[in-house]
Amino acid sequence: MLSDVVVSAPAVVLRAKHEPPQIRRDLARLSRCHTDCLILASMIEPIADGIHLAAQDEPQHSWPTPYTGIVGRSCHNLDEVRAAELEGVHYVTLSPIFPTESKPGYGPALGLNELRHVASQTRLPVYALGGVHVGRVAACRAAGATGVAVQGAVARSSKPQAAIQAILAEWQLG
Predict the structure, then answer these.
(1) How confident is the model over 92-140, as pLDDT tens digits?
(2) CA dihedral 102, 113, 120, 91 (to 10 degrees)
(3) pTM of the predicted model, to two decimals?
(4) Rounded distance, CA 77 to CA 96, Å?
């Protein structure tokens, strides 16, 4: 349960895209207590610092009102990252870096060499996503990732607080 987590994450991207808006707002309020940077997937809310767009979401320049918060974009290859640069987003996630239990069969996994290549070809911060867990965090950092995005490593853990601490520790030591 999120409310049981004591460790603060540097940033939280709350997906829950298929939940009703009120449930997402309630989850956002709970998440806000555990991070200084809250980003909502495909939803703009005043409580959040930004929005994370799926690869298929409309580009921000097509929105009726300019948005001043943080904007991130999910990408799966260098062409999508280059399009995100032109769109003016602040960061991208690149996925899947490794095979992932959260989305079995999603891929193919890009691997660390592709992460290294994409990260070296963009000015945007690139966050490694997909199959990232303790034991892979330092390798993502060494490959040029600005950070890692994890879901399953924390959500499937019987001790989410310890999982977050271990991921942060490996990043720091990596």
Answers:
(1) 999 999 998 877 777 799 999 999 999 999 999 999 999 999 999 999 9
(2) 0
(3) 0.89
(4) 10
Unique residue bearing structure tokens 């977050």: 164
Q: Give the start-end residues of each E strand in the chain.
A: 12-14, 38-41, 50-53, 70-75, 91-94, 126-129, 147-149
Contacts of residue 36, defined as CB under 8 A and 6 or more positions apart, other chains included, come to: 8, 10, 11
Q: Of 68, 69, 73, 66, nearest to 89 (Cα)?
A: 73
**Distance separating alpha carbons of residues 91 and 126, to the nearest angstrom:** 6
Query: How do residues 47-57 score in pLDDT, each as one tens digit?
Result: 899 999 999 99
Residue pair 39/13 in contact by the 8 Å Cβ criterion: yes
Q: 3-state class of 35 per DSSP?
A: strand
